[in-house]
Amino acid sequence: MPDAGAARAQLARDLSIRHAASLVVGIIIGSGIFLVPKEMMQAVGSAEIVLLAWLVGGVLSFFGAVTYAELGAMKPGAGGEYVYIRDAYGPLLGFLYAWATFTISKPASIATVASGFVRVLGNFPALGFLSFELFRVPLFSEPLIITWGHLLAVTVIVLLTALNWIGVRRAGEFQVVFTILKVAMIVGIAAVCFALTGGRWENFSSHYPEAKGGTVGFMVALIAALWAYDGWNNLNMVAAEIRKPERTIPIALIAGISVVAFLYVLMYAAIQFVMPAEAVAAAERPASLATQIVAGSFGAGLVTAGMALSMFVTMNGQILAGARIPFAAAQDGYFFPRLATVHPRFHTPTMALLFQSGLTILLILVGGSFQQLFSLAIFAEWIFYMIAAGSIFVFRHREPEAPRAYRAWGYPVVPGLFIAASAVLLYYSFTENLRNSLWGSLVILAGVPVFYFFARKPGKPA
After folding, report:
1. First to last CA, the chain
2. Among 52-66, 190-204, 226-240, 268-282, where is mean pLDDT lowest?
3. Which residues lie closer than 8 Å to 225 by C-beta, 6 or more apart?
4. What would the mean pLDDT of 9-33 be, rounded to a whole number?
5. Of 154, 216, 224, the residue nearest 378 (C-alpha)
6. What are the residues whose beta carbons fall under 8 Å from the beta carbon of 145, sequence distance 6 or more?
7. Is residue 236 within 8 Å of residue 324, measured between CB atoms?
8. Helices 168-194 and 148-165 meet at what angle, rounded to 10?
9. Most confident among 37-41, 118-122, 239-243, 309-313 (mean pLDDT)
10. Given phi > 0 = left and psi -120 to 50 = alpha, else beta, which region is 139?
11. Are 248 and 17 in contact, with CB atoms under 8 Å apart?
């Protein structure tokens, strides 16, 4: 049992507006902008339509951020979407969101980024040993092979978890510094590409004839863009640790999404300026190839370093935000009470951080299987985006006179459009990936008996 001091300790509101904005920008910008232009071009076949998909994805993400800005300002509690869904629809649905998030989507997302970080670093010749075997663990069917890359990924998770353990402000300062570096690197890469004397504006009217095309192709490209924009909702998870959340959350969300959209469009335009549509569709890493064309191997190395830096910053933000979900569920009595422990000195959810890092490390070590686990959660994530955004209508109807320091621009049209877009994306993601969507639904439903197990225990809040 936690001691009395730990039980009395509370999360500290140590995050300022610059920390909050850095969380939004730093978490969103990962490896997506460096990789997905290929997938998007293969889907639509037109540079102009790819650009349109980036713009539409940015607008839809902006609509979601505006909606979440009102919710975060109104209910600035730890857990973000968990709080909105719990208060709007009841504790069962709130727990199912938390269950899907802290058992699969968040640790699998962190594990995916950590493993991608190692793979990117492995492109440097001096770090080629990362793919070498370190040792193997005998299992029933085949041995589990642990590489130097696994060791590095686990080490990074442990170090970033330790950073978040010793204070949210320290983790926030880390996020600010490295987000600034990340933004500067993206602007620098774009500037290098636009400096190419052989670049052609005619590339923006080029085409890739073998693309899927049509509505289905555009939706594939839009889903890829939205994946690159994903992560803005993480800020609301740490609302309980943000100073003046009623003002800070709306500003950080809206400004953060706007900055990311500008950087994404700038980066894609720089790639397209250097290469025609067919070259973008054929390139494994379009940004790396574009920079290599301009600046040779040094340019390719710059992009590789930029990808690694982006992933590193994203991991810190995800670890910071993700631990607040099991913490919030445990605080309400719907998960193991130890996970609601707050460190008496550092005022951080230490046991929730350990729980999250343990699951993440497990997924890293089991190898490729975590990729499948992550894909199971994609359908669930969009379900809960839609449900959480819908809570704004519930609260406006149920609590019309409640204090609202910020009201969503364009209500009810803007939240309605975001919910409608989420529904359309759910349809396409479900039909395009039926097996994983069904498994994702089963994973969510598996949380029902877990909820009732804890709900039957005495001492639950009304």
Report:
1. 24
2. 190-204
3. 36, 40, 53, 54, 56, 57, 58, 264
4. 91
5. 224
6. 133, 136, 367
7. no
8. 130
9. 239-243
10. beta
11. yes
The span from the CA of 106 to the CA of 438, in Å, is 19
Q: How far apart are CA 178 and CA 304, in angstroms?
A: 16
Q: How far is CA 317 from CA 144, 202, 231, 266, 449, in A?
A: 30, 39, 9, 23, 31
Quote the tokens at residue 184: 């500067």
Strand partners, 136: 145
3-state secondary structure string across the chain: CCCHHHHHCCCCCCECHHHHHHHHHHHHCCCHHHHHHHHHHHHHCEHHHHHHHHHHHHHHHHHHHHHHHHHHHHCCCCCCHHHHHHHHHCHHHHHHHHHHHHHHHHHHHHHHHHHHHHHHHCCCHHHHHHHCEEEEECCCCCCEEEEHHHHHHHHHHHHHHHHHHCCHHHHHHHHHHHHHHHHHHHHHHHHHHHCCCCCCHHHHHCECCCCCCHHHHHHHHHHHHHHHHCCCCHHHHCHHHECCHHHHHHHHHHHHHHHHHHHHHHHHHHHHHHCCHHHHHHCCCHHHHHHHHHHHHHHHHHHHHHHHHHHHHHHHHHHHHHCHHHHHHHHCCCCCHHHHCCCCCCCCCHHHHHHHHHHHHHHHHCCCHHHHHHHHHHHHHHHHHHHHHHHHHHHHHHCCCCCCCCCCCCCCHHHHHHHHHHHHHHHHHHHHCHHHHHHHHHHHHCHHHHHHHHHCCCCCCC
Could you give the count of Cα atoms lying within 13 Å of 226 in the half-sphere of its Cβ?
27
Q: Is the peptide bond before 412 cis (omega within 30 degrees of 0)?
A: yes
pLDDT band at residue 5 under the 50/70/90 scheme: very low
CA–CA distance, 303 with 289 (Å, rounded to integer): 9
Least confident of 187-191, 298-302, 436-440: 436-440
pLDDT beyond 80 at 249:
yes
Cβ partners under 8 Å of residue 119, min gap 6: 149
Structure tokens at 127: 């770090």
Token digits of residue 265:
């469009």
**What is the gyration radius of the CA atoms in the chain, in angstroms?**
22
- On whether the CB atoms of residues 232 and 28 are closer than 8 A, the answer is yes
Read off the amino acid at residue 420: A
Q: Which residues face 146 on adjacent strands? A: 135
Angle at 134 between CA 131 and CA 138, to 5 degrees: 115
Q: Which residues contact 298 (CB under 8 A, 6 or more apart)?
A: none
How far apart are the C-alpha atoms of 207 and 47, rounded to whole Å? 7
- Here the tokens at position 102 are 């802290």
Q: The tokens 């070498």 sit on which residue? A: 132
Amino acid at 10: Q
